[in-house]
Amino acid sequence: MKEQSRIAVVTGSNRGLGYAIAKKLGQRQEVQVVLTSRDEASGRAAHEKLAQEGVSADYHSLDVNSDQSVETFTQWLSQTYGKVDILINNAGVNPTGQIEESSVLTVKLETMLSTFTTNVLAVARISQALIPLMKEQNYGRIVNVSTEMASLTITPNDYYPLAPSYRLSKLGLNGLTVLLAKELQGTNILVNAYSPGWMQTDMGGENAPFTAEEGAETAVYLATLPDGEAQGKFFAEMRKSGDAITLNW
Ligand SMILES: NC(=O)c1ccc[n+]([C@@H]2O[C@H](COP(=O)([O-])OP(=O)(O)OC[C@H]3O[C@@H](n4cnc5c(N)ncnc54)[C@H](OP(=O)(O)O)[C@@H]3O)[C@@H](O)[C@H]2O)c1
Q1: For domain 6-240, which architecture applies?
Q2: Is 204 in the pocket of ligand 1 (CB under 6 A)?
């Protein structure tokens, strides 16, 4: 473990944006990253790849949809580090490829529920587990990975299938961000959401204009915010402006 480290947990960091965030955070001198995944084999492979890329991280399995897994993980974290400073809620699912997702009138309600389960309820679950540890130190930076597709004010109308399951789930995540921030007002635990933009990952596909590394930039910015900075805000990806800019919810 690095000296005087900030302990950073990144959910779903075996691939895609999560891996890129783990790498960028882990490259910082003061951050000790814990790479996590629900599938142990792919998580360990990603951990090994990170090491080959010069980043010394830790690894533990974590299925954000499982009470048991989150409990085991939290106990391990407590025993190993005695604290957690940064939580990146990156793990997510997107069923938008399904034809039913083109309309609210055809979307399958069970798909809405399963998408909501991972993209919203799991974030509530891990927040309930880890925020008490953050409160012990009165320090925390929580970054919820959302999408501008879920903004109620800038909702662009040129998106491919309407994507009700995905968009409504991220709307729920945005709401959770605001409520948590309200509850944590006055503490040094800052919770914000951001939109990483359309990226070349398994979810985004190869036609996306940006890399996961580019999408990771704002996550690192929000994970390392100085005390007293943004609380309960929704950020755009920084590459658009070269600086941190907030979006309307
Ligand atoms: N790609 C884009 O263009 C884009 C745009 C805006 C926002 N986002 C958001 O960015 C985040 C990452 O997306 P991505 O593009 O990197 O997607 P991805 O390539 O599909 O990766 C999703 C990650 O989430 C993990 N995951 C899913 N369910 C999980 C669970 N129950 N427990 C633990 N991990 C779980 C996956 O693990 P497995 O490998 O086990 O499946 C995988 O590591 C998501 O929240 C997504 O909504 C992406």
Answers
A1: 3-Layer(aba) Sandwich (3.40)
A2: yes
